[in-house]
């Protein structure tokens, strides 16, 4: 008999900014699957890897304190699509690699910058 074990990469940004998305994914990965909270940091300035490491420590503690079994994984990238690809390629190990990408609904797609909407659509494709 085969049981599906969801291994989810959840694009949360900072985990405390998307608690509803975390609770949703935690509901179907609870004790049988993997949840990785992905955060893509973009910007034209030079990446500060010390900040990235500090964020990783801070938000991993936040996840533990809130009893959410997940890993927080931040990356630097030029845009969200590229960062998502980096996370899908590098996150996890062996059978504990993400097989499901979970992203939040883009509610400002009508009013927002069309380049951001296009990037969001390409992430889904």
From TrEMBL:
Subcellular location: Membrane
Residues spanning the membrane: none
A single cellular component GO annotation: apical plasma membrane
Membrane topology: Multi-pass membrane protein
GO biological process: cell volume homeostasis; chloride ion homeostasis; potassium ion homeostasis; potassium ion import across plasma membrane; sodium ion homeostasis
Keyword Transmembrane: yes
Assigned keywords, A-Z: Membrane, Transmembrane, Transmembrane helix
GO MF assignments: ammonium channel activity; sodium:potassium:chloride symporter activity
Domain SLC12A transporter C-terminal: 18-125
Protein name as it appears in the record: SLC12A transporter C-terminal domain-containing protein
Organism annotation: Oncorhynchus mykiss (Rainbow trout)
């Amino acid at each position: 008999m085969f049981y599906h074990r969801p291994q989810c990469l959840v694009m949360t940004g900072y985990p405390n900014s998307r608690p509803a998305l975390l609770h949703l994914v935690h509901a179907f990965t609870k004790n049988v699957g993997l949840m990785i909270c992905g955060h893509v940091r973009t910007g034209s300035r030079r990446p500060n890897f010390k900040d990235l490491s500090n964020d990783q420590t801070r938000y991993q503690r936040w996840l533990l304190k809130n009893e959410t079994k997940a890993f927080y994984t931040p990356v630097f990238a030029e845009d969200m699509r590229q960062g998502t690809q980096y996370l899908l390629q590098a996150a996890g190990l062996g059978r504990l690699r993400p097989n499901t990408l979970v992203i939040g609904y883009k509610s400002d797609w009508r009013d927002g910058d069309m380049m951001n909407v296009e990037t969001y659509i390409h992430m889904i494709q």
